[in-house]
């Protein structure tokens, strides 16, 4: 199996996990007693959207034949992975208390997945550049 397809499958798995994480795998905090959502709810929604984009790009990466397009998709995955890290820590973020579900489980899980995505795509770009 080629390096491109392996990266595509890794990216697809990460994208799927990011789609599922905020609702099923590591759920964000539930609504407050008055029914209002905390900001981690919106972070989770953005994480699911980012995961869906990663999944679509991964499927395209698996299917496409041109190496230049594959390199471009890999570069975009790096940017999207960084966007997810910023989503969890800077842009929207989680609740204020460190023991809340979003801060204890969701954010570390999504940050780990995004870090793996970024590193795998950087590795692919470096190898393809030298090939």
TrEMBL record:
<keyword id="KW-1133">Transmembrane helix</keyword>
<feature type="transmembrane region" description="Helical">
    <location>
        <begin position="7"/>
        <end position="25"/>
    </location>
</feature>
<dbReference type="InterPro" id="IPR025531">
    <property type="entry name" value="DUF4418"/>
</dbReference>
<keyword id="KW-0472">Membrane</keyword>
<feature type="transmembrane region" description="Helical">
    <location>
        <begin position="106"/>
        <end position="126"/>
    </location>
</feature>
<protein>
    <submittedName>
        <fullName>DUF4418 family protein</fullName>
    </submittedName>
</protein>
<feature type="transmembrane region" description="Helical">
    <location>
        <begin position="45"/>
        <end position="64"/>
    </location>
</feature>
<keyword id="KW-0812">Transmembrane</keyword>
<feature type="transmembrane region" description="Helical">
    <location>
        <begin position="71"/>
        <end position="94"/>
    </location>
</feature>
<dbReference type="Pfam" id="PF14387">
    <property type="entry name" value="DUF4418"/>
</dbReference>
């Amino acid at each position: 199996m080629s390096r491109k397809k392996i990266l595509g499958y890794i990216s697809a798995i990460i994208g799927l996990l990011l789609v599922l994480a905020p609702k099923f795998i590591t759920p964000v905090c539930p609504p407050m007693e008055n029914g209002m959502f905390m900001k981690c709810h919106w972070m989770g929604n953005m994480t699911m959207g980012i995961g869906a984009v990663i999944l679509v790009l991964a499927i395209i990466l698996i299917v496409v034949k041109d190496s230049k397009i594959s390199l471009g998709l890999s570069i975009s995955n790096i940017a999207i992975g960084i966007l997810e890290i910023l989503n969890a820590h800077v842009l929207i973020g989680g609740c204020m208390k460190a023991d809340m579900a979003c801060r204890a489980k969701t954010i570390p899980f999504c940050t780990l997945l995004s870090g793996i995505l970024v590193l795998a795509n950087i590795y692919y770009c470096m190898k393809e550049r030298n090939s």
